[in-house]
Amino acid sequence: MTKYETLFLCKPDLPEDSIQVMVSRLSEQVSSNQGKLAVVDMWGHRRLGYPVSYRGTQYQKGFYILLTYLGSGRTVTEVERTIGLLEDVMRFQTVKLEDQVDPASIAEVTHTRQKDEIIAPEEVFEEEESGREEVPPPRERTAPPEAESQSAGEAGGPAEPAAPAPSDKDQEDEA
């Protein structure tokens, strides 16, 4: 069997019981198509990266659910067909994780629920910036240390800037 993950995005205003009905319907689809459900991970309400238009409404938030299951290509087709029929699912995506997975390695279905928290993008950037180390500004140098020590030793004082080398244009002007 092959291991798949299907992540789907539901409308944020769904009641808890309709989300449970949706998940149980998809679980039945997996099992009726010779698949085995491994994990149901409810990520909860999250702020979207960009506004999503769905049936004439713009959404800034959504409810994420991740299903991990074992099955064949037929199982994936039926799960995606069922998700397409659900009116409250705005987007979905299925990813193939592994080939040749032993179904005995999946003991029982794990249901997890992550903390419902909405993270604003500004907060993410603030956390990243606060975790960074302070980098001192670069020191300003007028000349490399070798040049300073050579010129000071030869002339006994600061060196004068060297005259620019003559170019081909200057030689043509003289001729």
Keywords:
elongated, 5 helices, 5 strands, Alpha-Beta Plaits, 5-stranded mixed sheet, alpha+beta
Report on the architecture of this protein.
Helix 1 runs antiparallel to helix 2 (about 75-85). Strands 4-1-3-2-5 form a five-stranded mixed sheet. The model has no long low-confidence stretch (mean pLDDT about 75). The protein is built from five helices and five strands; from the N terminus they run βαββαββααα. Strand 2 and strand 3 form a beta hairpin. It has about 180 residues and is of the alpha+beta class. It starts with a strand and ends with a helix. The chain has a domain at about 1-100: Alpha-Beta Plaits (2-Layer Sandwich), CATH 3.30.70. The chain has helices spanning about 15-30, 75-85, 120-130, 145-155, 170-175; strands at about 1-10, 35-55, 55-70, 90-100, 110-115.
Q: SSE string, helix = H, strand = E?
A: EHEEHEEHHH
Q: How are strands sequenced across the largest beta sheet?
A: 4-1-3-2-5
Structural class: alpha+beta
The CATH class of the domain at 2-99 is Alpha Beta
Q: What is the number of helical segments per DSSP (H or I, 4+ residues)?
A: 5
CATH-derived topology of the domain at 2-99: Alpha-Beta Plaits
Tell me which CATH architecture of the domain at 2-99 applies here.
Answer: 2-Layer Sandwich
The rounded Rg comes to 32 Å
Report the biggest beta sheet as strand number plus sense, adding barrel if it closes: 5 strands, mixed
Mean pLDDT: 76
Overall spatial form: elongated
Number of strands: 5
* CATH homologous superfamily annotation of the domain at 2-99: Ribosomal protein S6/Translation elongation factor EF1B
Oligomeric grouping of the chains = single chain
**Which stretches of 5+ consecutive residues score pLDDT under 50?**
none
- Give the helix proportion (percent range): 25-40%
Relative strand content:
25-35%
